[in-house]
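ok trying again, last paste got cut off:
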Amino acid sequence: MINEGAGNLKEIVLQSQSHGMRAAVFEHGDLVEVFEEEVGSSQLVGNIYRGRVENVLPGMQAAFVDIGLEKNAFLYVGDAVPSRFEEDEKVVSAVQERIERVVQPRQELLVQIVKEPVGTKGARISVNLTLPGRYVVLLPQVSYVGVSRKILDNNERTRLRDLATVAKPEGMGVIVRTLAEGIDGEEIAEDIARLVANWRALQPKIPHVSVPGLVHKDVDLIARLVRDWIDQDVEKITVDQDEVALVLRKALREIEHPAAKHIFVVSGEDLFARYGVDDEIRKTLRSKVWLKSGGYLVIQQTEALGVIDVNTGKYVGQHSLEETVVHTNLEAAREIARQLRLRNLGGIIIIDFIDMTSKEDQQQVIEVLETACARDKTKSQVLGLTQLGLVEMTRKKVGQTLAVRYTTPCPTCDGSGRV
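nice, full thing came through this time. structure:
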């Protein structure tokens, strides 16, 4: 892979194709995220629909709702009742509702997709609607103000909460996003006002949408990049079309982002080939991942969880076995965080690091893993060591994995990969 972005903290590469657009995100020259969007389609998360309840299943405490997609969407009882919040967290109502009391067959609902359909499973939906902006997420149906837990400074949290409380309309709520850290009140107020105007413009249209039908579609890939991915760490954006550069420059000037001056156009060239993106994707689709030292990871995804094994491989170290093991584990911890993002693995993750006898070494490896995972916009949590010495962690499932997007199961071996 050509490390064109090696000197930059963060770089984004956008490549236009006849069938859509692709984006790659680099951190310190390493590929960490890949997105695609085909012409005429977009990601489904964030889309709002009018739907009709098809089946209510008390045994699963869920309902299936027809929203006009190929498969009916899944509505869990916790997503079928209005959210109640405590400090920064959604909490389950003290009185446990039952799905058959909340929704009825043939009932019409206004819902939003919160998880993409994966495999045989339909999309997961919620009646609790949100409209994301750059600095806040608007909660149009509930009065609440929260602040991203990734903002750790208590004074900053208080400042942002106060600004959002003043700026939000009565009866609506907002959650302040991580990108808002250090941003002045005027920009936050403008973001809230823009989202409120969008919501109010949407409301008169809702009754006129047929059931099932799409009420609101989330923004396209370029707008999503500006809203969700182009943070203060982005120093360079490379695109292959002047038209795309113009759209990006305009959007970034509106939010006064310095990257507006660092958008470069490289036309007539396959940028993903130049940056080695497709080669990196091919490597990522394999189960074995080599580390620079000579050690390696084996990554296996099962129906229930993801499993990662760490091995010293060709790395023999220089001084002692203990030093060799710790060095391999520390390198593996950083690479595991990158692989989870790149592969978009979610759910339960079990990591089998090479055994370490020292508690201090164990803690150091866990802290490095936590620090590396903290750069991931998708929520993850490192839970620590089990009695067997395995590291447990979770990562929120968002969208499809890289393997699902780029591969199909073999019809001969049914995906087992063995003859």
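cool. The chain is about 25% helix and 30% strand. The chain has three domains: 10-38+220-278, 48-216, 285-405.
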